[in-house]
Amino acid sequence: MSLLDQVRDAGIIGAGGAGFPTHVKLNAEAEYILLNGAECEPLLRVDQQIMAMYPEEIIRGFEMAGRQVNAKKAIIGIKGKHGDVIQILEDTIARLGMGDYVSVGILPDIYPAGDEQVLVYELTGRTVPETGIPIMCGCVVLNAETAMNVYLASQGQPVTETWVTLAGDIPERKTFKVPVGTPVMDVLKQSGIEDFSQYEIIDGGPMMGPLLEDRNGSVVKKNKGYVILKKNHPLIRKKSCTLDQARKVNRATCEQCRMCTDLCPRFLIGHDMEPHKTMRITNYGLDDVQGKTMAQLCCQCNLCEYFSCPANLHPRLNNLRLRNEMMAEKIKYQPDKEKQYKARIARPFRLVPSKRLIARLGLKAFDKPAPVTTQSVAPAEVKIPLSQHVGAPCTPIVSVGETVSVGQMIGQIPEKALGAPIHASISGQVTEVTDKYIAIRRV
After folding, report:
1. In which band, very low, low, confident or very high, does the pLDDT at 18 lie, cut at 50, 70 and 90?
2. Residues 207, 210, 212, CA angle at the centre, nearest 5°?
3. Domains (ranges, CATH) in the chain?
C-alpha cells in the first residue's frame, strides 16, 4: 500500500488547523515541505512537548511526507526560545542520518508565527499569493502532530486520539491525549474545576479560538486545547461581541489611525490587506465593491482587534462581516496575477512579540507550563462526529448493536468526495448512528 493510501485510510487531517485531509495535501509536487512547530497561540503547549517526547516519530513522518511530495528540502519551523527541543530535534536528525534532507529553521517568538503564510515567508523567504495556499509557491505545510500521525499511519495505526492542552485560570494546567469523540466536559473537568457556571471556555487558542458554544459536544481530531477563564475576564468580553455590536462601536469611534494595517501580518508580507480601509468603507457606507472584497484576504488572526487598535475596536469582525456579504453575493477578490510580492520594508520593526501580546490579553498570570500527564480520559461513551474535517461528512459503515474495536474504520469517505474516514476510538458497542455522529459505549 502506498503512503498516500495509508494516510487516507488512517483518517489523517490537519491536527490543529481547518482539518484539511492530509492525503489530498500530499498528492502534490513541492520544492519545500515545512513542519509548523511554531505553536504561536498563547498558552497552548502540545507541539513543543510532543516534539521533545516523540522526535523520531515526528521526523520520520515528516521525512516520509517530504519524499511523497518530492520536496528537495524539509524544514522544521520552531521558535528559538525552545532551545532544549531544538537540541533534541537536531540530535535525532543526526542520529537518523537525515541531516542532508531535514533541518531545523529558527522562528522568532512572534504572533502569528504559526500562520502558514507567515511560516512560509520566515522559512523560505517566499510569499504565498493573495487568496492562495502554500503549494502555489512550492511549499507544503504540516504541523507536528500531523507528521507524527503520518508515521503512525505507515505502521498501520489510524487516528483515534488527539493531544490537547488545558490552560487558563484553572487549578491544574496540563497536556494529554484524548480519544476522539470524548465528551468535552469530561476533558474540561481534568482542569480541577467541577462547576463551570462562572467560566467561559475558549475552544482553541486565545487569539483565534471561539467561545465554546456547545459544552455537550465531543472532541474532534483537530482540537488542540481549551482555555478556561472567568466570565468577567476582558478577553471573554471581547469574544462575546457580535457583528452588529462591533459595527456600531466601529462606526462611532474609528479615527483611521491605520494601526490595524501597520501591524497586519498579511499586509507586512506584501498582500493588499488594509483593515483601516475596510473599516472606512463600512463606517461611511462607501460603494466600493473591490474594497469590500479585500476583506477576503484577512486571515482572522485577531491581531488588529486584540493588540493593534488603540481604541479596542473590531477590525477583524468588520472584515468577517464584509467577507460574508461578498460570499452571499458570490463576489470574489481578484488578485493581480502578474504581481511580484515583496515584504514591506518596515516588517522587521512591526512584528509583535508573544510576551507583549500575552500581557495585552491579560493572560500573563496564566502563561505557565502545562506539562504532559499520563493521566488518561476513559469515557464510558464516545460520540464520534461524521464531519470533523474539510469536505463531505463520512458515510457510516457500522450499525447499532455492532461490536467494534479501537482503530476499526466506522465511517468512510463518500465516493469521489473530499474527506477523511473515521475510526472507533474505544472498543465497545455501537449505540447510535445518526447523520451527525456514531456513538460507541464501552463494554
Report:
1. confident
2. 135
3. 3-154 (3.40.50.11540), 160-233+362-375 (3.10.20.600), 246-354 (no CATH), 380-443 (2.40.50.100)
